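Suppose you are handed a protein chain with no further information: no name, no annotation, nothing but its sequence. What can you learn? This example shows the usual starting point.
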Amino acid sequence: MTGDRVSDRTPAQNAQLALLLEVSGTPKPGNVDRHRDLDELRFEHFMAGAVGAGEGVRRAAAGDPVGAAFETAVAGMATQQGGNTQFGCLLLLVPLVRAAATNSLSPEGVDGVVESTTVDDAVAFYRAFEHVDVAVGEPPPEVDDLDVRRGAAAEPAIRERELTLSDIMELSADPPDGIADGNAREWVTGFERAFDAADALLGDDGPIVDRTARIFLDLLADQPDTLVAIDHGVDTARAVSDRAAEVASAVDATGDLSAADSLAEEFVDAGINPGTTADCTAAALCIALERGLSV
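A reasonable first move is to predict its three-dimensional structure. Written in structure tokens, the prediction is:
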């Protein structure tokens, strides 16, 4: 499929709508949705985060540098009281919006956006971590000076090594400890999973919030979630994907999402939050909206 636009909305509007639809899909096991809050993170925080991110995604559509647009989006998102609602979503949405604004929303087009990123983009990406707490894995000792939690303090190391934002994503997508970052992997694979999930959304029928719940389950079943691996370990992340696969199979067989609702309660009770899967779901929604998903 080409990158030709179908939507009557702007790419930035579709990005914000994707954020709103992502959190409205239910049930999304372990995640905030319109029926389920976490202890300190509620549905309204995600709604406010989607609104706050508006200036940043509009900057991406206008052609501003990817890093600066991303930092602006994160800063706006972080103005609500829940903390980190959509950092990972925005990391995926900003390059997608940039590609869509130039009528090149395709794996090849997004690759072009990624490959054009600069050292300044990498520095802005690191600054974004100063706006909100983000769960990340420990970096290998040899690149401790590139720990994203250093924020702006990592700038000298980034500039000394002349690392672009694309380079940073490659480091995260293939780390020595084997725990790859799912969002970084999207950056270096032409957003493969997001485009495939967008095709699935477009090929499905029924209310979009139900389609969103189904695609979330399928994505979680397909690949262990990075945030779950960080919070609970790789073995738990794999077990979570296995449980999601069981439930996804039942949902596909019956069309009934009630099994997913039970799984949602199970995950929330266990403190399991597959947040990286939610990020990919938002990216898929944005692509699908650009390609004519009707709302």
